[in-house]
Fold each of these.
Amino acid sequence: MIIVQLILYCFLFTYMVRLAVRGGAINGLYFYPKPVQERAIEIGLTAQDTMNRKRKRFMVLFYIVMLAALLLIVGFWNKVMDFKTAYLQSLLFLEVMNWYDGIAIDKLWVGHSKFWVLPGTEDIPFVQTWRQVLKKRCVLTLIWVAGAAVTAGLAVLIF
């Protein structure tokens, strides 16, 4: 059952990213490296305040949805009652999401789809190298060790 839940959780993650860029990749400019953002703003694809507003709106919604989904899976669906089990399940989901984002989203989807290429920025690299992906994912792995404690505590407390 955990495998099915992990697949559903990753599907939700993908759906949220897809929702952010409905209408075109420019709507997710905040996902791109700084040089791409600066060029896109410079050539008039969008404005800095528009990008910042979209980032804030998306990130708040994203964190709320992904946290709620994780709490519902661990606390409601799996009926976890103790902190240790809730922590281990939360950590598993957060780490799978972390590495899924780096490999499936960043390297595969973004790296192999013309959808993400912004006109006028083709000469600027926007896909992370494997080294960058590994570095970022390792840092986030450590962050999620602490984050899982928060979600586990909430799951046990709420459910």
Amino acid sequence: MALVKCKECNETVSAEAVDCPYCGAPQQTVVVLTAVPVESTEEIFFSDNSVIITNVRLVVGGATYALRNIISVEMQFTPPRLIKPVLFLIVGLMILFAAFMPINENAPAPAGVYIIAGMMIVGAVLWMCCAKTKYHVGLSSASGEIHALTSKNRAYIQQIVVDINKAIAKHL
């Protein structure tokens, strides 16, 4: 234990003493540490409302992925499922065919049957035309594969995949 002289009364006191036991003068000076801003080395490659890509991390919605854990990135896609509209079309065509082949030659099918069959056929065709392919940002890591982001906009997903690969290359 080191001994020092009191700043006020010049008596010998312990260097660890907070106050002088003789005069009560404070002995230890309080050091105030201030935070020094550290210059960030994180470089942003892409940023929009839901995605941020830097050379350190990928943030999609509320999920954050460390780039050092990502093994590969690729654009994947899921084609539209057309089973239901095709079945809808087949049923509409069967109703239309049945309406043209009346059971009794003297009693043609009511007009409502043709309207329902026509609406089913048109609806099925529109359904098939409006069905879009879904594109995904596929991330592979040691823990498995995940679709980090899904969109019907192919160019958007392609841009994100390119920027993630640029960020990974910069990180290495």
